[in-house]
Amino acid sequence: MEIQQIHQTSANMAPSVFQLSGTCNNYPWGKQGKASLAAQLCAQTPGTDFKLDESAVYSEMWFGDYPDFPARVLSSGELLSDVLKTDKEQLLGKKVLQYYDGQLPFLPKILSISKALPLQLHPNKALATKLHEEDPGNFTDPNHKPEIAVALGKFEVFAGFKPLGEIQPLFALQPLKRFDPSPGKWDDETLRNVTRELMKAEFSTVKEVQTQLSHLSRSDLPSEAGYILNLLPRLQDQYGPEDAGSLVTLLCMNYMVFQAGDAIYIPADGIHAYLSGDIVECMARSNNVLNTGFCPPADRNRIDLFANVLTFKAHSRDDVYLPSQTYDKSKNGKTVVYKPPMSEFDMLKADLGKGETEELTANEGPGVLIVTNGEGIMKAQGEEFEMKKGYIFYVAPGVNLRWESKQALQIHMAVI
Ligand SMILES: [Zn+2]
């Protein structure tokens, strides 16, 4: 009798590992047609109605349970969020039920970036809650959204502030003197106000300053700031000479160029603008953002709020970089983990050479993985799954995974 009951329960249980399909969006900073890795990966999942259109721009593929651009269970076409509701205990686990409201606490994406994303920050929880109450149309959830980005190739980014000692000398330059309220005596509040004034400057002023800046020669600038003269025309090309985003990013923020496998962490209230490349991004379950530059003027109506909440936690390149670490649940050492200083998620990256295998012991929480390169086989719960570039899988808590590579295999996986 008992045995029969157990058998019946397991027969009714949803599978613990299943394939998903993601959803692409088309923001104007994305890459064209099949040059977009987001679109390429999205197109790999068989049996969906996604057709890659060469004339379209593809910016992001999302594959979480957030209502915008949601993931679906491939076999049934059902929304992942609906399927998770059918058995939260099994599919999300106790930890998620207890601490994260019974929803997937992270949101993974692939981004393909051809030009600067809006200069932005994601508000902290208290502010997000307030904004969501006041303006639920624009702030669709009450959550914070710290995020990480793992480069899949060359990745250019502006993130966090430079050390004050690198910013101040730039504002001693003739074109920028007018923005320097206290020459030689800056602290973070000075930087906050300078950022605010740059963003609030008249279009004509911004244009004048950018034109004067572009006439400087490399020898006029401190040696570590020479890149500003290379990037200014590129940003002007993308957003025109009247966009203050170019001044804030080039003068005040760290500019970094990363390679595949490098990762960054952006805390809540952290200023950032990704510039180019293909990345895996993962964030807390939220879509709240304040934009101030590299976007239409109508989207920049909260400059004071933006300036007021800015965090100065990241004040150098090293503060932004998120190094990978060995992953203690990996049996064969092919997997590293990126651990942002927050509780919602970690990101795993597995790299297997030809014929290699990797085994991961089970997690307490759920995971979502995407094959970012190569092909192979996944074994889990006595079942085998074909893995190809672009395939996305949901993995319930308590499931041991075994991956076997054919030629090569790379997997990125968000876990709790
Ligand atoms: Zn962001």
TrEMBL record:
Coiled coil: none annotated. It catalyses: D-mannose 6-phosphate = D-fructose 6-phosphate. Pfam families: PMI_typeI_cat (PF20511). GO terms for biological process: carbohydrate metabolic process; GDP-mannose biosynthetic process. Zn(2+) binds at Q120, H122, E147, H272. Keywords: Isomerase, Metal-binding, Zinc. GO terms for molecular function: mannose-6-phosphate isomerase activity; zinc ion binding. CDD domains: cupin_PMI_type_I_N (cd07011). Residues 17-164 form the Phosphomannose isomerase type I catalytic domain. It comes from the Eukaryota. InterPro entries: Man6P_Isoase-1, Mannose-6-P_Isomerase, PMI_typeI_cat, RmlC-like_jellyroll, RmlC_Cupin_sf. Binds 1 zinc ion per subunit. It is an enzyme of class 5 (isomerase). Involved in the synthesis of the GDP-mannose and dolichol-phosphate-mannose required for a number of critical mannosyl transfer reactions. This is Mannose-6-phosphate isomerase.
